[in-house]
Prior knowledge:
This protein is α+β, with helices and mostly antiparallel strands. The protein contains 5 helices and 12 strands.
Amino acid sequence: MxxxxxxxxxxxxxxxxxxxxxxxxxxxxxxxxxNLSAFTPTVSRKTGSRVSRMFSMSHKSPPPKVPQxxxxxxxxxxxxKGLTAYLEVHQLELEKLSTQIRESKRNSRLGFLYDLDxxxxxxxxxxxxxxxxxxxxxxxxxxxxxxxxxxDGAHNMVKAYSTGSPGSxxxxxxxxxxxxxxxxxxxxxxxxxxxxxxxxxxxxxRMKGLAGFARLCAxxxxxxxxxxxxxxxxxxxxxxVNSKQVWDSEEMVFxxxxxxxxxxxxxxxxxxxxHVVVGNVSCETKDLFAALPQVVAVDINDLGTLKLSLEVTxxxxxxxxxxxxxxxxxxxxxxxxxxxxxxxxxxxxxxLREQAFYVSVHHAGxxxxxxxx
Length: 373
Protein backbone atom coordinates (compact mmCIF):
# COMPACT_ATOMS: atom_id res chain seq x y z
CA MET A 1 0.00 0.00 0.00
CA UNK A 2 1.84 3.04 -1.26
CA UNK A 3 -0.15 5.88 0.21
CA UNK A 4 -0.06 5.58 3.97
CA UNK A 5 0.80 2.08 5.12
CA UNK A 6 4.36 2.03 6.34
CA UNK A 7 6.69 -0.67 5.03
CA UNK A 8 7.33 -2.10 8.47
CA UNK A 9 3.60 -2.46 9.14
CA UNK A 10 2.16 -5.51 7.43
CA UNK A 11 -1.62 -5.70 7.67
CA UNK A 12 -3.15 -9.15 7.62
CA UNK A 13 -6.54 -9.44 6.03
CA UNK A 14 -9.40 -11.60 7.20
CA UNK A 15 -13.13 -11.57 6.80
CA UNK A 16 -15.38 -9.87 9.34
CA UNK A 17 -18.78 -11.38 9.93
CA UNK A 18 -21.71 -9.48 11.32
CA UNK A 19 -21.91 -9.38 15.12
CA UNK A 20 -18.50 -11.04 15.39
CA UNK A 21 -15.03 -9.76 16.18
CA UNK A 22 -13.21 -6.93 14.46
CA UNK A 23 -9.66 -7.62 15.51
CA UNK A 24 -6.73 -5.50 14.55
CA UNK A 25 -3.09 -6.07 13.79
CA UNK A 26 -0.55 -4.67 16.17
CA UNK A 27 2.00 -2.42 14.55
CA UNK A 28 4.85 -3.81 16.61
CA UNK A 29 4.29 -7.52 15.89
CA UNK A 30 2.47 -9.35 13.13
CA UNK A 31 -0.32 -11.55 14.46
CA UNK A 32 -3.51 -12.94 12.92
CA UNK A 33 -6.99 -11.69 13.60
CA UNK A 34 -8.69 -13.22 16.62
CA ASN A 35 -12.22 -14.55 16.66
CA LEU A 36 -13.73 -12.78 19.62
CA SER A 37 -17.24 -12.31 20.82
CA ALA A 38 -18.81 -8.89 20.71
CA PHE A 39 -19.00 -6.72 23.82
CA THR A 40 -21.67 -4.21 24.69
CA PRO A 41 -20.50 -2.19 27.71
CA THR A 42 -22.72 0.45 29.22
CA VAL A 43 -21.85 3.83 27.72
CA SER A 44 -23.35 7.12 28.74
CA ARG A 45 -22.97 10.20 26.59
CA LYS A 46 -22.38 13.76 27.68
CA THR A 47 -24.99 16.31 26.69
CA GLY A 48 -24.34 18.25 23.54
CA SER A 49 -22.34 15.57 21.71
CA ARG A 50 -23.21 15.28 18.05
CA VAL A 51 -22.33 13.12 15.13
CA SER A 52 -19.07 14.30 13.62
CA ARG A 53 -18.50 14.24 9.90
CA MET A 54 -15.15 14.37 8.17
CA PHE A 55 -15.89 15.94 4.80
CA SER A 56 -12.91 17.76 3.36
CA MET A 57 -14.20 18.37 -0.18
CA SER A 58 -16.64 16.83 -2.61
CA HIS A 59 -14.14 13.98 -2.93
CA LYS A 60 -12.57 12.42 0.10
CA SER A 61 -9.00 12.77 -1.11
CA PRO A 62 -7.10 13.86 -4.22
CA PRO A 63 -6.45 11.22 -6.89
CA PRO A 64 -3.52 8.94 -6.04
CA LYS A 65 -0.33 9.10 -8.05
CA VAL A 66 0.09 5.34 -8.26
CA PRO A 67 -2.97 3.09 -8.85
CA GLN A 68 -3.59 0.04 -6.71
CA UNK A 69 -5.45 -2.42 -8.98
CA UNK A 70 -5.14 -5.46 -6.70
CA UNK A 71 -6.52 -3.57 -3.74
CA UNK A 72 -9.31 -2.09 -5.86
CA UNK A 73 -10.33 -5.59 -6.95
CA UNK A 74 -10.73 -6.63 -3.31
CA UNK A 75 -12.73 -3.53 -2.40
CA UNK A 76 -14.93 -3.90 -5.48
CA UNK A 77 -15.79 -7.51 -4.64
CA UNK A 78 -16.64 -6.55 -1.04
CA UNK A 79 -18.69 -3.59 -2.24
CA UNK A 80 -20.68 -5.69 -4.70
CA LYS A 81 -21.37 -8.25 -2.00
CA GLY A 82 -22.60 -5.51 0.33
CA LEU A 83 -24.85 -3.97 -2.31
CA THR A 84 -26.29 -7.38 -3.16
CA ALA A 85 -27.04 -7.97 0.53
CA TYR A 86 -28.66 -4.52 0.72
CA LEU A 87 -30.89 -5.34 -2.25
CA GLU A 88 -31.85 -8.73 -0.82
CA VAL A 89 -32.74 -7.34 2.60
CA HIS A 90 -34.94 -4.57 1.20
CA GLN A 91 -36.50 -6.95 -1.32
CA LEU A 92 -37.53 -9.24 1.55
CA GLU A 93 -38.97 -6.25 3.39
CA LEU A 94 -40.91 -5.27 0.27
CA GLU A 95 -42.32 -8.77 -0.11
CA LYS A 96 -43.34 -8.82 3.55
CA LEU A 97 -45.17 -5.50 3.23
CA SER A 98 -46.87 -6.61 0.01
CA THR A 99 -48.07 -9.81 1.70
CA GLN A 100 -49.39 -7.84 4.63
CA ILE A 101 -51.28 -5.51 2.30
CA ARG A 102 -52.94 -8.46 0.55
CA GLU A 103 -53.94 -10.04 3.85
CA SER A 104 -55.23 -6.79 5.36
CA LYS A 105 -57.33 -5.41 2.51
CA ARG A 106 -60.60 -6.84 3.82
CA ASN A 107 -60.01 -6.39 7.51
CA SER A 108 -58.06 -3.20 8.22
CA ARG A 109 -58.44 0.52 8.44
CA LEU A 110 -57.99 2.59 5.31
CA GLY A 111 -55.29 4.66 6.99
CA PHE A 112 -53.28 1.56 7.77
CA LEU A 113 -53.39 0.39 4.14
CA TYR A 114 -52.43 3.87 2.97
CA ASP A 115 -49.44 3.88 5.32
CA LEU A 116 -48.34 0.45 4.09
CA ASP A 117 -48.67 1.57 0.49
CA UNK A 118 -46.48 4.60 1.17
CA UNK A 119 -43.80 2.37 2.69
CA UNK A 120 -43.95 0.01 -0.30
CA UNK A 121 -43.50 2.86 -2.77
CA UNK A 122 -40.64 4.29 -0.72
CA UNK A 123 -38.81 0.96 -0.66
CA UNK A 124 -39.39 0.52 -4.40
CA UNK A 125 -37.81 3.93 -5.07
CA UNK A 126 -34.88 3.03 -2.84
CA UNK A 127 -34.40 -0.30 -4.63
CA UNK A 128 -34.31 1.45 -8.00
CA UNK A 129 -31.75 3.87 -6.65
CA UNK A 130 -29.65 0.99 -5.32
CA UNK A 131 -29.77 -0.79 -8.68
CA UNK A 132 -28.71 2.39 -10.48
CA UNK A 133 -25.90 2.89 -7.98
CA UNK A 134 -24.68 -0.69 -8.49
CA UNK A 135 -24.76 -0.29 -12.28
CA UNK A 136 -22.74 2.93 -12.01
CA UNK A 137 -20.12 1.17 -9.91
CA UNK A 138 -19.98 -1.66 -12.47
CA UNK A 139 -19.42 0.84 -15.28
CA UNK A 140 -16.61 2.56 -13.38
CA UNK A 141 -14.95 -0.77 -12.64
CA UNK A 142 -15.23 -1.92 -16.26
CA UNK A 143 -13.65 1.34 -17.44
CA UNK A 144 -10.92 0.85 -14.85
CA UNK A 145 -10.22 -2.67 -16.12
CA UNK A 146 -9.97 -1.38 -19.71
CA UNK A 147 -7.46 1.28 -18.70
CA UNK A 148 -5.52 -1.32 -16.73
CA UNK A 149 -5.23 -3.61 -19.77
CA UNK A 150 -4.12 -0.67 -21.91
CA UNK A 151 -1.57 0.30 -19.28
CA ASP A 152 -0.21 -3.24 -19.14
CA GLY A 153 0.11 -3.28 -22.92
CA ALA A 154 1.91 0.06 -22.92
CA HIS A 155 4.22 -1.21 -20.18
CA ASN A 156 5.12 -4.27 -22.26
CA MET A 157 5.82 -2.04 -25.25
CA VAL A 158 8.07 0.25 -23.21
CA LYS A 159 9.92 -2.77 -21.87
CA ALA A 160 10.34 -4.22 -25.35
CA TYR A 161 11.62 -0.99 -26.89
CA SER A 162 13.92 -0.36 -23.93
CA THR A 163 15.64 -3.73 -24.19
CA GLY A 164 16.19 -3.38 -27.94
CA SER A 165 18.63 -1.10 -29.73
CA PRO A 166 17.20 2.46 -29.58
CA GLY A 167 19.45 3.64 -32.40
CA SER A 168 16.83 4.32 -35.08
CA UNK A 169 14.57 7.31 -35.03
CA UNK A 170 11.46 5.14 -35.42
CA UNK A 171 12.39 3.11 -32.33
CA UNK A 172 12.89 6.26 -30.27
CA UNK A 173 9.55 7.68 -31.42
CA UNK A 174 7.79 4.41 -30.64
CA UNK A 175 9.36 4.35 -27.18
CA UNK A 176 8.29 7.93 -26.50
CA UNK A 177 4.76 7.17 -27.71
CA UNK A 178 4.52 4.06 -25.55
CA UNK A 179 5.83 5.97 -22.52
CA UNK A 180 3.29 8.72 -23.13
CA UNK A 181 0.48 6.17 -23.37
CA UNK A 182 1.63 4.44 -20.20
CA UNK A 183 1.55 7.74 -18.31
CA UNK A 184 -1.87 8.63 -19.70
CA UNK A 185 -3.40 5.27 -18.80
CA UNK A 186 -1.90 5.51 -15.32
CA UNK A 187 -3.52 8.92 -14.77
CA UNK A 188 -6.85 7.58 -16.04
CA UNK A 189 -6.66 4.67 -13.61
CA UNK A 190 -5.96 7.04 -10.73
CA UNK A 191 -8.92 9.23 -11.67
CA UNK A 192 -11.26 6.25 -11.99
CA UNK A 193 -9.99 4.84 -8.70
CA UNK A 194 -10.76 8.15 -7.00
CA UNK A 195 -14.19 8.33 -8.63
CA UNK A 196 -15.06 4.81 -7.50
CA UNK A 197 -13.86 5.69 -4.01
CA UNK A 198 -16.35 8.56 -3.94
CA UNK A 199 -19.16 6.01 -4.51
CA UNK A 200 -18.43 3.90 -1.42
CA UNK A 201 -20.95 5.65 0.85
CA UNK A 202 -20.43 6.18 4.58
CA UNK A 203 -19.41 4.25 7.67
CA UNK A 204 -21.44 5.35 10.69
CA UNK A 205 -19.37 4.33 13.71
CA ARG A 206 -20.94 4.34 17.18
CA MET A 207 -18.81 4.05 20.30
CA LYS A 208 -19.97 1.16 22.47
CA GLY A 209 -17.18 1.31 25.04
CA LEU A 210 -14.11 -0.51 26.27
CA ALA A 211 -14.17 -4.02 27.68
CA GLY A 212 -11.43 -5.75 29.62
CA PHE A 213 -10.89 -8.73 31.87
CA ALA A 214 -10.24 -7.23 35.33
CA ARG A 215 -8.40 -4.35 33.68
CA LEU A 216 -10.93 -1.52 33.72
CA CYS A 217 -11.32 0.10 37.12
CA ALA A 218 -13.41 2.99 38.37
CA UNK A 219 -11.57 6.25 37.85
CA UNK A 220 -9.48 5.14 34.86
CA UNK A 221 -9.37 7.57 31.95
CA UNK A 222 -8.66 6.64 28.36
CA UNK A 223 -8.10 8.48 25.12
CA UNK A 224 -8.94 6.85 21.79
CA UNK A 225 -7.55 8.25 18.57
CA UNK A 226 -8.78 6.90 15.22
CA UNK A 227 -7.11 7.78 11.96
CA UNK A 228 -8.55 6.86 8.58
CA UNK A 229 -6.66 8.56 5.79
CA UNK A 230 -7.13 12.30 6.38
CA UNK A 231 -10.03 11.69 8.73
CA UNK A 232 -9.51 11.89 12.49
CA UNK A 233 -11.59 11.08 15.55
CA UNK A 234 -10.32 11.67 19.07
CA UNK A 235 -12.45 10.97 22.12
CA UNK A 236 -11.85 10.68 25.84
CA UNK A 237 -13.69 8.58 28.36
CA UNK A 238 -13.82 7.77 32.04
CA UNK A 239 -14.69 4.56 33.82
CA UNK A 240 -17.19 5.13 36.62
CA VAL A 241 -18.65 2.90 39.27
CA ASN A 242 -20.90 -0.01 38.25
CA SER A 243 -18.81 -0.37 35.07
CA LYS A 244 -20.41 2.71 33.51
CA GLN A 245 -18.42 4.69 30.96
CA VAL A 246 -18.73 8.35 30.04
CA TRP A 247 -17.34 9.51 26.68
CA ASP A 248 -17.23 13.02 25.29
CA SER A 249 -18.17 11.75 21.83
CA GLU A 250 -20.18 8.76 20.72
CA GLU A 251 -20.72 8.80 16.95
CA MET A 252 -18.59 9.47 13.92
CA VAL A 253 -19.06 9.27 10.14
CA PHE A 254 -16.09 8.04 8.12
CA UNK A 255 -15.96 8.07 4.34
CA UNK A 256 -14.62 4.69 3.15
CA UNK A 257 -11.25 4.64 1.41
CA UNK A 258 -9.76 2.15 -1.02
CA UNK A 259 -6.11 1.92 0.00
CA UNK A 260 -6.24 3.11 3.61
CA UNK A 261 -6.70 1.11 6.81
CA UNK A 262 -8.32 2.25 10.03
CA UNK A 263 -5.67 2.99 12.66
CA UNK A 264 -6.76 2.93 16.33
CA UNK A 265 -4.57 4.11 19.19
CA UNK A 266 -5.68 3.75 22.83
CA UNK A 267 -3.87 5.66 25.57
CA UNK A 268 -4.45 5.45 29.32
CA UNK A 269 -4.32 8.88 30.96
CA UNK A 270 -2.73 8.41 34.37
CA UNK A 271 -1.70 12.01 35.07
CA UNK A 272 -0.97 15.26 33.27
CA UNK A 273 2.47 14.12 32.12
CA UNK A 274 2.13 10.36 32.35
CA HIS A 275 0.29 8.75 29.47
CA VAL A 276 0.64 5.04 28.73
CA VAL A 277 -0.05 3.76 25.22
CA VAL A 278 -2.11 0.60 25.67
CA GLY A 279 -2.14 -0.40 22.01
CA ASN A 280 -1.88 0.83 18.44
CA VAL A 281 -3.59 -1.36 15.83
CA SER A 282 -4.46 -1.17 12.15
CA CYS A 283 -7.72 -2.72 10.98
CA GLU A 284 -9.19 -3.84 7.67
CA THR A 285 -12.39 -2.04 6.60
CA LYS A 286 -13.45 -3.65 3.31
CA ASP A 287 -15.54 -6.26 5.12
CA LEU A 288 -17.68 -3.57 6.74
CA PHE A 289 -19.80 -3.22 3.57
CA ALA A 290 -22.84 -4.98 5.04
CA ALA A 291 -26.57 -4.43 4.84
CA LEU A 292 -27.18 -4.60 8.60
CA PRO A 293 -25.32 -2.91 11.48
CA GLN A 294 -22.36 -4.85 12.82
CA VAL A 295 -21.18 -4.94 16.41
CA VAL A 296 -17.45 -5.53 16.25
CA ALA A 297 -14.71 -5.85 18.87
CA VAL A 298 -11.14 -4.73 18.31
CA ASP A 299 -8.19 -6.26 20.14
CA ILE A 300 -6.23 -3.33 21.54
CA ASN A 301 -3.30 -5.14 23.15
CA ASP A 302 -1.46 -8.33 22.24
CA LEU A 303 -3.03 -10.43 24.98
CA GLY A 304 -6.56 -9.35 24.09
CA THR A 305 -7.33 -8.26 27.66
CA LEU A 306 -8.58 -4.87 26.45
CA LYS A 307 -11.07 -4.57 23.61
CA LEU A 308 -12.81 -1.69 21.91
CA SER A 309 -16.45 -2.34 21.03
CA LEU A 310 -17.89 -0.45 18.05
CA GLU A 311 -21.15 -0.55 16.12
CA VAL A 312 -20.63 0.08 12.40
CA THR A 313 -23.48 0.83 10.01
CA UNK A 314 -22.78 1.16 6.31
CA UNK A 315 -24.80 3.60 4.24
CA UNK A 316 -24.29 3.05 0.49
CA UNK A 317 -24.93 6.74 -0.18
CA UNK A 318 -22.89 9.56 1.30
CA UNK A 319 -25.61 12.21 1.15
CA UNK A 320 -28.42 13.10 3.53
CA UNK A 321 -31.15 13.11 0.87
CA UNK A 322 -31.71 9.37 0.76
CA UNK A 323 -35.34 8.28 1.19
CA UNK A 324 -36.71 7.02 4.43
CA UNK A 325 -36.84 3.47 3.06
CA UNK A 326 -33.11 3.19 3.60
CA UNK A 327 -33.70 3.08 7.33
CA UNK A 328 -36.69 0.75 7.11
CA UNK A 329 -34.69 -2.38 7.77
CA UNK A 330 -32.28 -0.83 10.27
CA UNK A 331 -35.19 0.56 12.23
CA UNK A 332 -37.41 -2.50 12.09
CA UNK A 333 -38.52 -1.99 15.67
CA UNK A 334 -40.33 1.23 14.73
CA UNK A 335 -42.06 -0.44 11.81
CA UNK A 336 -43.07 -3.44 13.91
CA UNK A 337 -44.39 -1.13 16.59
CA UNK A 338 -46.50 0.64 14.00
CA UNK A 339 -47.76 -2.68 12.69
CA UNK A 340 -48.62 -3.92 16.16
CA UNK A 341 -50.54 -0.71 16.89
CA UNK A 342 -52.81 -1.27 13.93
CA UNK A 343 -53.06 -5.03 14.37
CA UNK A 344 -54.10 -4.92 18.01
CA UNK A 345 -57.82 -4.54 17.22
CA UNK A 346 -58.53 -4.65 13.50
CA UNK A 347 -62.16 -3.66 12.83
CA UNK A 348 -64.32 -6.34 11.28
CA UNK A 349 -66.51 -5.67 8.28
CA UNK A 350 -70.02 -4.81 9.63
CA UNK A 351 -72.73 -7.32 8.94
CA LEU A 352 -75.99 -6.51 7.13
CA ARG A 353 -77.85 -6.21 10.44
CA GLU A 354 -75.27 -3.79 11.76
CA GLN A 355 -75.40 -1.75 8.56
CA ALA A 356 -79.20 -1.50 8.81
CA PHE A 357 -78.85 -0.40 12.45
CA TYR A 358 -76.33 2.32 11.49
CA VAL A 359 -78.61 3.55 8.70
CA SER A 360 -81.63 3.76 11.03
CA VAL A 361 -79.61 5.66 13.62
CA HIS A 362 -78.40 8.06 10.95
CA HIS A 363 -81.95 8.73 9.67
CA ALA A 364 -83.19 9.21 13.20
CA GLY A 365 -80.53 11.83 13.80
CA UNK A 366 -81.49 13.68 10.63
CA UNK A 367 -85.19 13.70 11.59
CA UNK A 368 -84.37 14.97 15.08
CA UNK A 369 -82.16 17.72 13.60
CA UNK A 370 -84.95 18.99 11.30
CA UNK A 371 -87.57 18.86 14.03
CA UNK A 372 -89.67 16.17 12.39
CA UNK A 373 -89.46 13.77 15.30
